[in-house]
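Retry 2 of 3 after timeout on previous attempt. Resubmitting structure tokens to design endpoint.
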């Protein structure tokens, strides 16, 4: 039998409306409190706060616990062997091999006091921790995370150790030894970088002396890194100095170029200037020398003007390295300054001679390549 249209309409009108969907009021823990589901799962890995609170309660109350965990300072914590085994494969093997007098699984954590062990077990249950307590106990906790194979806890400890200000010159060697033993390469790198930067003040510390006694190979490796870094720094300084001397040589070339053949807007009075206003000079310091010369010619306080003094030193430097034995050098005062420096040995002139030697050495080290090409590299 078929219903009429009128009957169907009245039936629809009598159907109650569905209740509204609940508001998303569930709160979540931080990422370190995530569940350990399969990473390939497409579902969310964040755990509701209520679930975390449940696991916290299971750990704190110890209801149904069957395992005694013994700390170094003779405290006992009640735990669940099934949870410990699921969280740590190392603990699973140890629990299978150890039994107490009452036949229950038994676990002794040597060398670690109550507080770090408590935080460690709590993390195995709920992945929760207090940040301040984590900072205080991070050293034993990263040790426990390594020997009991709990990578999630190790990641948290590495983040804490990696925070600015935690590692200092007093504890850097101790942290390095621990990071090396616990396979934490990021922390090893950070510690070694700190040692390289401040080797002089870190090498006399007690931690360094202890490392020499306990791990001589590590000390030799760190010192090799320090020496390599010092050699690289020394090479950088030498290259920087060489570049500076080559630039000085280029400046002297530009000075000779201006007085010998002229350039665009400046040059000898008896020669026509080469090129027009759009010409680009091959001497890259030519324009700077031109500006210094124009300033020198118009300056009314040459004796005290720093810019004029630098130009005068440039003339002295040219006189030191000029290889023109005749009086035909186009640079003004070249022969006069050359003769004066041969007679007098003032301190400032000795400095100019030493600078000239370094400039010549840098220029000769280029071999067949020009100084300008080297400076442009």
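Retry 2 succeeded. Sequence:
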């Amino acid at each position: 039998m078929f219903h009429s249209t009128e009957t169907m309409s009245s039936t629809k009108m009598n159907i109650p409306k569905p209740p509204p969907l609940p508001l998303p009021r569930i709160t979540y823990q931080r990422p370190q409190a995530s569940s350990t589901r399969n990473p390939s799962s497409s579902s969310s890995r964040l755990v509701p706060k209520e679930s975390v609170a449940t696991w916290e309660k299971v750990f704190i109350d110890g209801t149904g616990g069957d395992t005694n965990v013994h700390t170094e300072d003779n405290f006992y914590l009640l735990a669940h062997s099934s949870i410990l085994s699921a969280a740590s494969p190392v603990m699973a093997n140890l629990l299978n091999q150890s039994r107490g007098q009452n036949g229950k699984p038994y676990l002794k954590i040597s060398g670690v006091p109550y507080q770090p062990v408590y935080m460690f077990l709590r993390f195995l249950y709920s992945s929760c921790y207090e940040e301040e307590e984590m900072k205080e106990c991070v050293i034993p906790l990263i040790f426990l995370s390594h020997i009991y194979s709990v990578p999630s806890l190790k990641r948290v400890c590495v983040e804490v150790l990696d925070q600015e200000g935690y590692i200092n010159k007093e504890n850097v060697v101790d942290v390095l030894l621990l990071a090396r033993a616990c396979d934490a390469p990021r922390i090893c790198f950070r510690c070694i970088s700190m040692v390289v930067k401040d080797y002089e003040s870190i090498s006399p510390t007690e931690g360094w002396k202890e490392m020499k006694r306990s791990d001589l190979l590590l000390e030799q490796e760190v010192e090799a890194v320090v020496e390599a870094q010092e050699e690289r720094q020394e090479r950088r300084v030498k290259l920087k100095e060489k570049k500076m001397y080559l630039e000085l040589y280029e400046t002297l070339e530009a000075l000779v170029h201006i007085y010998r053949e002229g350039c665009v807007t400046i040059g000898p009075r008896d020669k026509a200037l080469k090129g027009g206003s759009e010409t680009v000079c091959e001497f890259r310091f030519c324009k700077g020398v031109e500006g210094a010369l124009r300033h020198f010619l118009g300056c009314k306080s040459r004796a005290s003007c720093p810019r004029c003094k630098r130009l005068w030193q440039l003339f002295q430097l040219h006189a030191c390295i000029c290889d023109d034995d005749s009086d035909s050098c186009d640079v003004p005062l070249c022969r006069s300054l050359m003769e004066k420096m041969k007679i007098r040995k003032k301190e400032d002139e000795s400095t100019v001679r030493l600078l000239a030697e370094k400039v010549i050495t840098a220029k000769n080290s280029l071999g067949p390549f020009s100084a300008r090409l080297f400076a442009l590299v």
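Attempt log closed. The first strand starts at residue 67 and ends at 70.
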